[in-house]
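Write out the bound-state structure for magnesium ion.
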Amino acid sequence: MLSASGLAKSHITPQGPLPLFRELSITLNHGESVALMGESGCGKSTLLHILAGLESADSGSIWINQHDLCKMNDSQRAKFRRYHLGIIFQQLNLIPSLNILDNLAFQARLAKRFDSEWMAHLAEQLGIEGLLKRYPAELSGGQQQRVAIGRALSAKAPFLLADEPTGSLDEANAEQVMKLMLSLVRETQTTLLMVTHSAHLAAQLDRSLTLSQGCLR
Ligand SMILES: Nc1ncnc2c1ncn2[C@@H]1O[C@H](COP(=O)(O)OP(=O)(O)OP(=O)(O)O)[C@@H](O)[C@H]1O
Ligand SMILES: [Mg+2]
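---
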């Protein structure tokens, strides 16, 4: 289970502090899939980064499977993340110097959970098995998005935090990639928090939350 409470965050900007939320709480139960919606700029990516321990909150607590994220130092958090969290970034962050196979296997190798059968299954399910020797710059946006999904699932971490994983795709492709991702998430019983602007995609998850004026409803 992932449970955060009393989260507060303001970004520091040249115009002064930009408060995003105060006293925000969220719970993700084992195996459920939850959509995170809200207007552009309301703080969805920031919240995801905080839950992943990549950015710090100003206050509040985050527990992931009985581990207190806020009590860890940076290196403990990085190590924890390897085993517990798969992350799909809004900007994908594929590693340009690694080929697709090595991008796909990146998280699994970090977590010492590389499994060639699972890699082959992921690549096949995501329809990227013919692209493994290419480099990210040689892939279309949709293909890159599939690689990012595969990489985030490669270590079979119990949680997947996905920031608009189909954001740059047209509707038909978004639907297809979403289906692939959800089927892999269900197969691995991964707990999913997914940012999306699409009510249609959100409706395919177990429930949805909307971040608005600093509150999650
Ligand atoms: N590192 C930062 N420093 C200062 N301000 C930031 C920083 N990151 C984000 N912001 C600001 O905080 C607000 C929330 O940003 P965030 O990226 O979390 O929004 P979002 O809900 O993910 O938006 P979108 O739907 O467009 O991706 C925005 O106004 C943004 O400009
Ligand atoms: Mg965002």
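---
Helices lie at 44-51, 74-84, 100-110, 116-125, 141-153, 171-187, 199-202.
The chain has one domain: 2-216.
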